[in-house]
Amino acid sequence: MKPATRRAIFARLAERTPHPATELEYATPFQLLVAVVLSAQSTDKGVNKVTPVLFRDAPTPQAVAALGAGRLQPYLASLGLFRTKAKNVAALAEAIVREHGGEVPRAREALERLPGVGRKTANVVLNTAFGEPTIAVDTHIFRVANRTGLAPGKNVADVERGLVATTPPEYAKDAHHWLILHGRYVCVARKPRCAECAIRDLCEFADKTPAADEAPPRPRAPAPRKAAPPARAKPRSAAPPRGAQPFAKTSRAGTKRGR
Question: Is 138 a residue of the active site?
Fold first, then answer.
């Protein structure tokens, strides 16, 4: 993809959503970190149903650590893998209190050492809480980057490297949010809403869905089959000479009729 096309894509996404933001609800970097950890294999809507009560009762690392994993579980019971998540959240809260004075660390290496925190979670926190131009590649961003041609890649690491290397600097800080929102609401997995896509004419996706007033693409005609070669005529057997007496089939081979 040409740099001018890439810049035009982000310009249109920025025009459509001038101030993109995460849909997770939080008030502090610690609460954002917890919400992102809880969002693994869960939707943001699902997380937003449990965090208001959790953060009301335990808004700080100290309060969450005091609850412990056992008393965290009832708050998280509606989420998938809630027991594992309760264990990780309690452990990361204890680590933040013990090793970082109750403050979420701003260094990637320190974030990724916390229980339940991987590269994607660290990228979200660094970008959303601390304003770093990182790009956390989830399933939505992976799909959008490959479909549009922004940063094709076979795995998450390839796509992240491609986006970080090629995203215009003026769009780097908010690129994560624009791409995830575009993938969540427009460039959806099963049937992308290409008719309402702001970057339809810039996107390199070959199988775009048609608009309501467009005829669907014609199916490709099957390749013509090769004609079968004409069957060869079987040679006729020579007629017996006149007056010859044909042999009759009997139980004994070679026996002539009348013998």
Answer: yes
